[in-house]
Amino acid sequence: MTKQHLEESVAYLRQKGFGKPEIGIVLGTGLGKLVDEIENPVEAHYNHIPFFPLATVEFHTGKLIYGTIANKKVVVMQGRFHLYEGYDFMDVTYPIRVMHLLGIESLFISNAAGAINLDYKKGEMMLIEDHINLQGGSPLAFKNVAEFGDRFVDMIEPYDPKMRKHLKEIATREGIILKSGVYASVVGPQLETKAEYRMLKILGADAVGMSTVPEVIVANHLRLPIVAVSVLTDECDPDNLQPVNIQEIIEIAGSTEPNMIKLFIELIKEI
Predict the structure, then answer these.
(1) Domain enclosing residue 181, as ranges
(2) Each residue of 237-259: pLDDT tens digit?
(3) What's 199's domain CATH number?
(4) Which of 20, 42, 90, 139 is most open to solvent, judged by the fewest CB atoms within 10 Å of its CB?
């Protein structure tokens, strides 16, 4: 990755009609319908954007969409990238740097995750308060990182307290269950063993997934305020573990999605 690569990606998007968005949004597995709320959308498929990775997961559609939600200009990633697809940290986080160069001032992230905290149930949502990086690396561990920002990034508060407070207030007002907790990010794509679920609980994780943390690290590197919500699609009880049905996970994410969309739209109105 070079600055020239990023500038060429942005130049292509400007040529396509992308203006200056205020908010960037990353949509997770089974959570693509927020794009239906975008007014006057302009689309760019990932495989047409210079230097962009390609989405290889069948339920990630692979488009960057620019438009308006609640009178705010947004740019939305419909489909994200994962280490388990064979990408490296630089690939996974490249779109965050592109959205930053386009002009975003804050970043919303969603994901599908498994509930480690057994008080949390599938079909609920969890506001991410903090995270544990178990992906074995960092998107900032490259030679010329200093050209893009400080090498040593403070992570004392990786998720913006003000936006977290707003989301909690919105959830209470709208009667939406929104738990809070710690998200652990693993490589995948295999699901966890019983022993691994027990380990994650001991470490203090409330939910586990295969994304988000690299994007959050880079957003902090770029000094972008972030808010992130996990849709809890399965319950990871090692003493009563059932085989995971990926299609069921997608369906649960889809059934919970309207509440996530409502939270994000209301937050867009307020910030």
Answers:
(1) 3-270
(2) 999 988 878 888 888 888 898 99
(3) 3.40.50.1580
(4) 20
